Amino acid sequence: MGDVLAGFHAAWEFASDSVLIRYERGIRTPKLFQALGERRVPLAALASVTLTPGRRGTVVLRAEPRPGADPLMDAAGGQLKEGCDPYRLVLPADREALAGRCADELTARLTGSGPADRHLVAAPEPPLHFKAYDGKASFDGAAVRFRWSWTGASSAKWKTGDQHFPVTALSGVEWRSPESFEGHLRLLPREGCGAAGAAGGAGQPPQPDQDPAAVVFGRGYGPVHESLPFAAAVLAAVRVAAPAPALSVPAARRDPADIAERIRHLGELHQAGLVTDEEFSVKKAQLLAEL
Question: Domain SHOCT, which positions (predicted)?
Answer without folding.
Answer: 261-288
